[in-house]
């Protein structure tokens, strides 16, 4: 029983117990364990209680669980308890929770296949791991590759990376990434990138060697070992591949749901291609060899597309099309061979039916005869000592022979392809070292295991043995290095298992022996195995239920092998006669090549056979007699030999192990199956590594780490200056058993479990301290709370008592006041009551009396109305009675009279019959007529009376209705209507009654309406009130809306401003991107330059030895040397070197030079295009910025533009005429005599050509003048005659716009072009054609007038004619006016000329001082008079012309003034030079005069000029001194002395002063050579001392100062405005050096980038140590166990850097740049780049180091960042943008410290971390690791919440920041205030040959 069990198995301790489902399950002790207990009381994580029974014999307790702070460690050896459940749980936590697929286990890298593409293999990750120690970063395949690469370079020893694992575990991918790392880090030393070829071989090898299995869709069915060769500089130069144990049986057989090799299915999928139709292939289901798995397709894989990829890879590796078609031909023949059907002839023989289609195709493709192949497929040859027999074989043997032939052909083809892949990867350069990558199958066990599994497990046994020995060796070296006593560690040695397999009389030996037996079989071999090993070897067992199988106990597990097929597969026999038939093929060269000896094979790339390298993968064939019997060598023997070679290779290298784990069998992403994982961990040796480590001292701490971690367990008196002694003393007190630890030289070694014990003590101590702190704080808080409560109680009492007293006084006052109030209130109530009663009585009386009066009044009115009604009714009744009576009387009268009349009529008729009666009748007729007439009159009167009465009735009853009046009117017309009128009276009475009823109804309705009106009025009033209220609300809403509109306007304004700002920022960003792209091209250009120079030097060195006396000159050329002119000496040396090159050019491979030259040309073109694009972008940016200002400016007037254009044309014509005249003079003067100008002579031809050209040009000019004049005249007329135009206002506006926009110039140019264009010349032809059509006798008007165009044309012509007539008249008038004006001007000019002549004659008589004053006075007088005259004039046109003339005159005067100023300055300079020379001459003459003469001659005063004034800021040197100038001032100049003692930028000033003199003397050759020499010399210095920060900073400062000087003194107005008058006098006068300014700017960019690289190289080693690893705040972060990766065998640290080291280095950088006079803006850009590098490197390492992601480390980072910000404040650099570059790092530190639990925390994190990408945030949260038990891990659900909230972010998926990114640099113009004439040249520069001018 271990000592620690007494206190480790206590209550709440956590243990691991076995579980059938999860393998191991966590549980917690419910009570303490005692030694006598046989049961442990546990509680599972799901809350269930469990009694765990202990073994009564062993009393073995369950495994203890590690503390939570150790869970998820990078290295499994860092765990305190090293056992299987701890390893499994640690891998599961890292894989599932943290999404980390790599974990260290000592020297092994465990890689779990995530079945998902992860962004952790990019170039940024490679750069992050490059150069790092293996334990410094998180586990990764790149870390293993980097360790192998570093050890190869450091120890000069070959390395190996052994990648193993099950099928589908990711072995091939891991090996591929390792090779990619080597290719990226080391690069390629040859022209063709070998790494690309190695990677390109993968598709080929996968096609011919990979297949689909039940476990993996792309399973490698062979092992391979790739040796990547390196030269002395550790660049990749080549590679070589070895292959092991190809699974040939898969060619002829596949299990269910499996496939054959991919290449067969690719061929079938591509069978429709034209070039493959000759192979006669079809679907994969048509062939026996490809359809046995019954699943020929793979989900997501396009076999046709994969076929294209395979063919491209073949082409890239140099296998040409003919060989490719040959390969496909062989593969297709194998498929057809599998379909050959064999039938039984009898029991012992078989036959192939004649004309078998597939066999015919096979023979056709292989080029062999059908008869031979069909014969030997069914027969075999038996040889004896004396005779040879041909024996037929049965059907089964024939089919086996056919399958054996197919397998043999495929194996030969596979070896041939591997052989030629190696040829493509072979190099002639000598290999210095190599790194091997072994991708081999892991331990395999299936339900049915055969020969292939036996060989695979045999190979894994050998590898496991090598692995165990290596681990044991490393442990021993570690112990010896730390001087710890070495005790032998017992570990599992699998040598007995290996002996069982390969020793004499072993499994393989017996198998080979049985293969040699004539009647050997699998059963007899199994019996031999049983007899030999069953009783003698414990590792060999026999299954109970089988006699044809055996069991071997391997290191990983027991495996049962089926003996069936072992002999056949081991012999791998093939009929020799079949091979001879194939070798006899004459049509197929590739087939013959496959089966001949490898030494005679030819290369498909055409390489000579003599240079072919024999692969080491093949077994040794040097023994005689075995070359022809190679196929008889057993597979087991071949595999054993190749495995032995592999082990020898691995033992000669330093191995690195990668174990790939398959997490589940369903290929689900990030799904962990514990059973499968444990099975693979046991099989791959990881647990054996754990066991070996746990057997010794697995936990190792440095003394500093132990002291930092467990300082809390020490007392103050225990802390000694010697930390080693302190740790020893403390450990002796804490751990009583000295065997539990050992003290080494630099480390303390602990046994398993001791770290957990120390962690428990530390946690208990911290917990006790926390309890004490909590107790003290709670006591303090309680006492503070008590004191606050006591003070509050006293205060409350005081206030309550005061309140009560005030309430009593208030009550007394209120009581008194209540009595008084009651008195007055009661009196008021009684008085009010009396008044109310009095008022009520009066009101009642008033109302009653009023009511009675109203009743009386209503009764009177009622009686009165009744009387009126009675009167009316009675009158109406009387009238009605009278009418009826009258009518009756009248009717009676009428009846009586009618009767009498009838009687009289009869009498008359009788009397009429007699004459006498007729006469009597006639006599009395007149009387009767008279009577009748009277009676009629009376009747009329009566009728009239009746009518009047009726009229009266109508007037009295008008209200009765319109109908009654109509009926009464009809009664007036005739008497017969009276009766009808009488009848209608009743109707009218009824109508009257109805009307009365309607009246009553109307009254009731009126009352109702009145009531409704009152109600409506009330409602309206209420509605009005509501509307008023709503109106008020609407007014308030209106005010709110107005306010909202104003706010929106403000917001819109802000948005517009923001949008403008964003657009501006976008433009600036685009500009910066263009600058960055341009500067990157410059960097690439510089790199190619350096590469070109290096290659040139290498070629020079590789050339023949130079002759004695020959001096080799280093090339100083750059790739853009065509831009400059070099000095003569450099050119001569260059010509010499070129001549040397030409001598040996034939012996060199110039392809690289041609490619480099082509690349340089392309880069120059791209550089020029980018420069143009940059200029265009800058112009657009400037144009956009100045667009608003230009809109407010007015262009010149049309007349001035026309005059300027005319003047330019005349000047060009003048120049042309002068040129023509010169040619004419030369041609005429060149020949003599009269024949010189004869027709046909050269002079005559030149004169005639020039005359014709002049005539043509004159005609063109005339046309242009006419067009311009008509246009200008039309514009003037349009402005003068506004009313005559159709649209006058618009026309004037258009003209004005044309003037403002400067379009007249464009119109003039376009008119010139239009006049000369062929379209303009063809236009009259079209008009003529139209006229001819109109004049034709039968015009087609429909054609002419299509769509009414003819009418439009006619109207347009009329308008045009009217306009032309108007313009012609106006032109005539203006012409006459202009003639008059010109005559007047001519007269005035004559008068002015006379006055000027008189004035000139007068001025010539005056003294010189008075001439200027007189001329000025005269000019003033003249201008005044002209102004007065023009002001008095009334003609605006004259005034405008006057103003134009004045403006022209002013411009001319200004030009003349400038010319005179330049002439005066030039003359002054010459005068000073001449004066100086004259003074020197006079001085020399004075020296020659004798003393006597000096005394006699009078001394005249001499003006002695001051030296400073004489010096013009120029330095003169001779041309032969240029090299000396460059050498002393640039090449040999020490920056330190110049920076300390002299003014900043002195070399730049000196060079510019020399350049000024060259410009002054107008020597262009001198200017070119000086600038070119300067640029090349600076490049040479930087190339030689480019790693010295001081040198680079010095020349960056001087280059920028030289560039600023070129700008400041260039004469450009934009740069001259900062100058003084004296500095403007020093401007360059003869040369424009704008192009050289661009070249110098490019050079400055290159120097700046060199400075950044130099600075980065200095800062890079400091950043991680100073910003992350060093504890700036001591004691905040605790050190956790680091595991085996922090080994003493790793590369030793170069030094410990702190934050102070970084700050000191930054101070050094800043002080150096300030001393060199670097521009402040440039210093800001450098500091910004420095801080970006610091932030990016720190953040990248934080994202790749799990041990750095903790709360305490976040505090350290924030403190370090605050120190950097303080440094910026001290240097006044806070506004340079450096702080913003640290924002991602700051946010990452904040992310480590914030709370990470709730959704509110997630929202806060998402809003806070806006500078971090989603991948970075999730990575930090996954890596977050608690250092103490009081911290908690981040829950997986919380990380999912963060990811869901950040899903909509648009950002780059890149995880790491780009540490190589350089911000684009700009060089703002910084003029110097230093006067050139004040600069003194110190003697230390050795520039005495320079002369000051």
Question: Could you characterize the architecture of this molecule?
Answer:
The protein is an alpha+beta fold and 1893 residues long. The chain is built from 58 helices and 26 strands. The strands form 8 sheets. A 7-stranded mixed sheet has the order 6-7-21-8-17-11-12, sandwiched between helices. Strand 11 (223-230) and strand 12 (236-244) form a beta hairpin. The two termini are 101 Å apart. The N terminus is likely disordered.
Could you give the count of β-strands?
A: 26
Please, how many helices? Answer: 58
**Strand-pairing-aware structural class:** alpha+beta
Order of strands in the sheet with most strands: 6-7-21-8-17-11-12
**What's the average pLDDT?**
77
Oligomer: single chain
* Major beta sheet summary: 7 strands, mixed
Low-pLDDT runs of 5+ residues are: 1-6, 597-631, 1104-1152, 1192-1200, 1231-1239, 1276-1328, 1341-1347, 1484-1509, 1687-1694
Proportion in β-strands: 5-15%
Helix content: 55-70%
Compute the CA-based radius of gyration: 60 Å
Q: What's the N-to-C terminus distance?
A: 101 Å
Spatial shape: extended
Quick rundown:
The chain is α+β, with helices and mostly antiparallel strands and 1893 residues long.
Descriptive keywords:
1893 residues, alpha+beta, 5-stranded antiparallel β-sheet, extended
Task: Summarize the helices and strands and which ones pair or pack.
Layout: H1 5-8, E1 14-19, E2 23-29, E3 39-44, E4 49-53, E5 63-64, H2 84-97, E6 102-105, E7 108-112, H3 123-129, H4 141-155, E8 159-165, H5 171-186, H6 194-209, E9 210-211, E10 219-220, E11 223-230, E12 236-244, H7 262-269, H8 288-291, H9 303-316, H10 321-338, E13 343-344, E14 350-351, H11 357-366, H12 370-377, E15 379-383, E16 388-392, H13 395-425, E17 433-441, H14 451-481, H15 495-502, H16 507-516, H17 522-533, E18 540-541, E19 549-553, E20 558-562, H18 566-571, H19 576-583, H20 589-595, H21 635-651, E21 654-661, H22 674-684, H23 686-695, E22 699-702, H24 703-709, H25 723-734, E23 741-743, E24 747-750, H26 754-912, H27 915-956, H28 962-973, H29 977-1102, H30 1128-1143, H31 1151-1191, H32 1198-1230, H33 1242-1280, H34 1288-1301, H35 1303-1316, H36 1318-1335, H37 1341-1344, H38 1349-1405, H39 1408-1432, H40 1436-1488, H41 1491-1496, H42 1507-1510, E25 1515-1516, H43 1522-1531, H44 1535-1541, H45 1546-1560, H46 1564-1584, H47 1589-1608, H48 1613-1616, H49 1621-1625, H50 1634-1669, H51 1699-1715, H52 1720-1743, H53 1751-1770, H54 1778-1781, H55 1783-1793, ...
Parallel strand pairs: 7-21, 8-17, 8-21
Antiparallel strand pairs: 1-2, 1-5, 2-3, 3-4, 6-7, 9-10, 11-12, 11-17, 13-14, 15-16, 18-19, 19-20, 22-24, 23-24, 25-26
Helix pairs in contact: 4-5, 5-6, 6-7, 6-9, 6-13, 7-9, 10-11, 10-13, 14-15, 14-21, 14-23, 16-17, 24-25, 26-29, 27-28, 28-29, 29-31, 29-50, 32-33, 33-35, 33-38, 43-46, 45-46, 45-47, 46-50, 47-50, 50-51, 50-52, 51-52, 52-55, 53-55, 56-58, 57-58
């Amino acid at each position: 029983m271990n000592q620690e069990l007494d206190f480790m198995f206590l209550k709440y301790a956590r243990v691991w117990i076995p579980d059938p489902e999860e393998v191991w399950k966590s549980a917690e002790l419910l009570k303490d364990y005692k030694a006598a207990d046989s049961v442990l009381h546990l509680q599972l994580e799901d809350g269930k209680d469990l009694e765990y029974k202990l073994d009564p014999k062993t009393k073995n307790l369950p495994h203890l669980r590690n503390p939570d702070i150790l869970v998820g460690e990078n290295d499994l050896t860092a765990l305190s308890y090293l056992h299987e459940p701890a390893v499994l749980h640690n891998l599961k936590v890292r894989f599932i929770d943290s999404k980390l697929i790599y974990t260290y286990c000592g020297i092994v890298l465990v890689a779990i296949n995530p079945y998902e593409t992860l962004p952790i293999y990019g170039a940024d990750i490679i750069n992050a791991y490059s150069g790092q120690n293996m334990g410094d970063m998180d586990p990764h395949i790149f870390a293993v590759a980097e360790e192998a690469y570093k050890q190869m370079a450091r120890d000069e020893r070959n390395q190996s990376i052994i990648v193993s694992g099950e099928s589908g575990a990711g072995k091939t991918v891991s090996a591929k990434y390792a090779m990619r790392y080597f290719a990226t880090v080391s690069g390629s030393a040859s022209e063709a990138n070998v790494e690309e070829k190695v990677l390109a071989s993968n598709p080929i090898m996968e096609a011919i060697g990979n297949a689909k299995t039940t476990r993996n869709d792309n399973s490698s069915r062979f092992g391979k070992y790739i040796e990547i060769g390196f030269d002395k500089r550790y660049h990749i130069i080549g590679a070589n591949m070895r292959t092991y144990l190809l699974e040939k049986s898969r060619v002829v057989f596949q299990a269910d749901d499996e496939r054959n090799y991919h290449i067969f299915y690719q061929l079938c999928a591509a069978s429709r291609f034209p070039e493959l139709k000759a192979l006669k292939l079809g679907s994969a289901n048509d062939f026996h060899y490809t359809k046995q798995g019954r699943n020929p397709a793979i989900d997501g894989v396009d076999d046709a597309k994969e076929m294209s990829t395979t063919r491209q890879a073949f082409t890239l590796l140099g296998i040409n099309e003919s060989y490719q078609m040959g390969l496909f031909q062989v593969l297709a023949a194998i498929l057809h061979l599998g379909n050959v059907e064999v039938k039984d002839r009898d029991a012992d023989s078989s036959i192939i039916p004649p004309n078998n289609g597939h066999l015919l195709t096979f023979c056709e493709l292989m080029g062999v005869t059908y008869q031979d192949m069909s014969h030997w497929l069914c027969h075999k040859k038996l040889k004896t000592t004396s005779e040879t027999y041909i024996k037929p074989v049965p059907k089964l043997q024939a089919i086996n022979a056919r399958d054996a032939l197919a397998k043999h052909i495929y194996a030969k083809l596979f070896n041939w392809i591997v052989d030629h892949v190696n040829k493509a990867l072979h190099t002639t350069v000598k290999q210095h070292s190599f790194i091997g990558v072994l991708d081999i199958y892991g331990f395999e066990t299936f339900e049915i295991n055969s020969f292939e599994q036996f060989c695979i497990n045999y190979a894994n046994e050998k590898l496991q043995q090598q692995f165990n020995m290596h681990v044991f060796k490393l442990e021993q070296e570690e112990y010896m290095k730390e001087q710890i006593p070495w005790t032998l560690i017992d570990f599992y040695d699998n040598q007995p298992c290996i002996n069982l397999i390969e020793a004499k009389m072993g499994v393989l030996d017996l198998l080979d022996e049985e293969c040699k037996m004539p009647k050997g079989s699998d059963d007899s071999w199994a019996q031999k195995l049983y007899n030999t090993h069953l009783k003698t070897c414990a590792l060999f067992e026999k299954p109970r239920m089988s006699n044809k199988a055996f069991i071997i106990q391997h290191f990983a597990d027991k495996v049962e092998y089926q003996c069936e097929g072992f002999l056949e597969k081991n012999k791998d026999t093939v009929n020799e006669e079949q091979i001879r038939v194939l070798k006899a093929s004459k049509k197929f060269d590739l087939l013959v090549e496959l089966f001949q000896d490898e030494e005679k094979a030819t290369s498909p790339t055409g390489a000579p056979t003599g240079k072919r390298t024999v692969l080491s993968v093949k077994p040794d064939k040097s023994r005689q007699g075995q070359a022809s019997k190679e196929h008889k060598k057993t597979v087991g023997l071949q595999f054993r030999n190749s495995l032995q070679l592999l082990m020898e290779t691995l033992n000669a290298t330093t191995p690195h192990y990668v174990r790939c784990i398959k997490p589940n069998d369903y290929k689900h992403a990030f799904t962990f199956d514990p059973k499968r994982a444990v099975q693979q961990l046991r099989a791959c040796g990881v647990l054996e590594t754990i066991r070996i480590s746990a057997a010794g001292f697995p936990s190792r701490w440095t003394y500093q780490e132990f002291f930092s971690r467990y300082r809390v367990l020490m007392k103050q008196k225990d802390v000694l200056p010697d930390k080693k002694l302190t740790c020893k003393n403390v450990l002796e007190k804490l751990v009583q058993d000295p065997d539990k630890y050992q003290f080494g030289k630099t480390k303390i070694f602990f046994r398993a479990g001791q770290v957990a014990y120390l962690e428990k003590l530390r946690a208990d101590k911290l917990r006790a301290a926390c309890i004490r702190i909590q107790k003290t704080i709670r006591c303090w808080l309680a006492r503070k709370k008590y004191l606050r409560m006591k003070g509050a109680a006293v205060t409350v009492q005081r206030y309550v008592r005061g309140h009560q007293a005030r309430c009593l006084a208030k009550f007394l006052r209120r009581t008194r006041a209540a009595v008084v109030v009651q008195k007055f209130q009661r009196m008021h109530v009684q008085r009010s009551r009396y008044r109310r009663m009095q008022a009520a009585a009066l009101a009642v009386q008033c109302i009653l009396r009023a009511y009675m009066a109203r009743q009386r009044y209503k009764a009177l009115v009622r009686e009165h109305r009744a009387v009126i009604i009675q009167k009316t009714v009675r009158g109406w009744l009387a009238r009605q009675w009278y009418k009826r009576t009258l009518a009756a009387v009248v009717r009676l009268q009428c009846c009586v009279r009618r009767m009498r009349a009838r009687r009289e009529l009869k009498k008359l008729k009788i009397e009429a019959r007699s004459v006498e009666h007729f006469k009597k009748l006639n006599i009395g007729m007149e009387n009767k007529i008279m009577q009748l007439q009277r009676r009629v009159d009376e009747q009329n009167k009566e009728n009239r009376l009746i009518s009047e009465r009726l009229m009266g009735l109508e007037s009295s009853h008008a209200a009765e209705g319109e109908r009654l009046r109509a009926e009464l009117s009809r009664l007036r017309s005739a008497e017969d209507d009276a009766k009808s009128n009488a009848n209608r009276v009743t109707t009218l009475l009824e109508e009257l009654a109805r009307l009365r009823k309607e009246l009553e109804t109307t009254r009731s309705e009126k009352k109702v309406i009145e009531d409704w009106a009152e109600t409506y009025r009330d409602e309206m009033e209420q509605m009005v009130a509501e509307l008023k209220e709503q109106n008020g609300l609407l007014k308030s809403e209106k005010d709110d809306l107005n306010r909202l509109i104003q706010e929106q306007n403000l917001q819109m304004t802000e948005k517009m401003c923001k949008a403008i700002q964003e657009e501006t920022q976008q433009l600036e960003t685009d500009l910066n991107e263009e600058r960055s792209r341009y500067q990157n091209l410059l960097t690439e250009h510089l790199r190619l330059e350096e590469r070109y120079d290096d290659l040139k030097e290498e070629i020079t060195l590789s050339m023949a030895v130079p002759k004695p006396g020959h001096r080799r000159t280093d090339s100083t050329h750059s790739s853009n040397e065509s831009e400059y002119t070099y000095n003569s000496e450099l050119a001569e040396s260059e010509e010499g070197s070129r001549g040397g090159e030409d001598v040996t050019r034939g012996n060199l491979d110039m392809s690289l030079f041609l490619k480099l030259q082509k690349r340089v040309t392309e880069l120059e073109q791209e550089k020029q295009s980018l420069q143009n694009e940059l200029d265009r972008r800058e112009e657009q940016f400037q144009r956009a910025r100045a667009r608003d200002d230009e809109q407010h400016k007015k262009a010149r007037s049309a007349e001035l533009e026309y005059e300027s254009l005319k003047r330019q044309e005349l000047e060009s014509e003048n120049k042309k005429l002068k040129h023509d005249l010169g040619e004419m003079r030369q041609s005429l003067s060149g020949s003599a005599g009269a024949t010189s100008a004869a027709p046909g002579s050269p002079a005559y031809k030149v004169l005639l050509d020039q005359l014709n050209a002049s005539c043509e040009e004159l005609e063109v000019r005339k046309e242009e003048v006419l067009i311009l004049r008509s246009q200008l005249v039309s514009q003037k007329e349009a402005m003068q005659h506004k009313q005559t135009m159709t649209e006058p206002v618009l026309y004037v506006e258009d003209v004005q716009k044309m003037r403002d926009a400067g379009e007249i110039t464009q119109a003039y140019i376009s008119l010139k072009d239009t006049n000369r264009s062929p379209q303009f010349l063809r236009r009259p032809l079209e008009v003529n054609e139209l006229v001819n059509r109109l004049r034709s006798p039968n015009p087609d008007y429909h054609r002419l007038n299509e769509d009414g165009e003819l009418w439009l044309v006619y109207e347009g012509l009329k308008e045009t004619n009217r306009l032309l007539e108007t313009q012609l008249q106006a032109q005539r008038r203006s012409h006459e006016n202009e003639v008059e004006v010109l005559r007047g001007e001519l007269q005035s000019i004559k008068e002015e000329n006379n006055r000027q002549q008189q004035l000139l004659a007068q001025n010539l008589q005056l003294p010189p001082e008075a001439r200027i004053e007189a001329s000025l006075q005269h000019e003033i007088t003249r201008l005044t008079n002209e102004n007065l005259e023009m002001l008095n004039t009334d003609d605006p046109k004259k005034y405008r012309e006057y103003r134009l003339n004045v403006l022209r005159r002013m411009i001319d005067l200004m030009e003349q003034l400038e010319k005179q100023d330049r002439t005066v300055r030039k003359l002054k300079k010459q005068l000073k030079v001449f004066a100086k020379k004259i003074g020197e001459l006079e001085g020399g003459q004075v020296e020659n005069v004798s003393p006597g003469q000096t005394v006699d001659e009078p001394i005249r005063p001499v003006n002695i000029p001051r030296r400073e004034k004489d010096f013009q800021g120029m330095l003169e040197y001779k041309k032969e001194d240029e090299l000396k100038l460059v050498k002393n001032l640039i090449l040999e100049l020490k920056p330190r002395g110049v920076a300390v003692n002299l003014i900043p930028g002195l070399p730049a000033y000196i060079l510019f002063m020399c350049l000024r003199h060259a410009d002054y003397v107008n020597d262009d050759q001198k200017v070119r050579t000086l600038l070119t020499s300067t640029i090349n010399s600076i490049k040479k210095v930087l190339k030689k001392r480019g790693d010295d920060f001081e040198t680079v900073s010095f020349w960056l400062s001087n280059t920028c100062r030289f560039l600023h000087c070129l700008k400041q003194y260039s004469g450009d107005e934009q740069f001259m405005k900062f100058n003084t008058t004296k500095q403007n006098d020093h401007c360059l006068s003869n040369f424009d050096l704008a192009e050289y300014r661009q070249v110098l700017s490019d050079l400055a960019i290159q120097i700046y980038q060199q400075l950044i690289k130099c600075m980065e190289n200095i800062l890079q080693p400091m950043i991680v140590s100073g910003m992350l690893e060093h504890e700036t705040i001591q004691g905040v972060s605790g050190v956790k166990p680091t595991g085996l990766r922090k080994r003493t065998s790793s590369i030793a640290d170069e030094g410990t850097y702190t934050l102070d080291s970084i700050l000191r280095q930054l101070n050094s950088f800043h002080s150096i740049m300030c001393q060199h006079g670097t521009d402040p803006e440039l210093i800001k850009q450098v500091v910004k780049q420095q801080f970006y590098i610091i932030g990016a490197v720190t953040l990248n390492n934080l994202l790749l180091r799990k041990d750095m992601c903790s709360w305490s480390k976040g505090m350290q980072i924030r403190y370090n960042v605050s120190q950097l910000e303080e440094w910026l404040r001290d240097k006044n650099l806070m506004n340079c943008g450096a702080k913003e570059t640290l924002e991602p790092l700051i946010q990452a530190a904040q992310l480590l410290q914030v709370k990470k639990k709730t959704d509110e925390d997630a929202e806060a994190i998402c809003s806070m971390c806006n500078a971090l990408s989603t991948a970075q945030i999730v990575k930090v949260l996954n890596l977050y690791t608690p250092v103490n038990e009081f911290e908690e891990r981040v829950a997986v659900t919380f990380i999912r919440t963060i990811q869901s909230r950040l899903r909509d972010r648009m950002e780059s998926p890149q995880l790491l920041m780009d540490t190589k990114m350089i911000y684009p640099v700009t060089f703002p113009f910084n003029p110097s205030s230093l006067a050139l004439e004040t600069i003194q040249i110190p003697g230390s520069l050795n520039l005495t040959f320079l002369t000051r001018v």
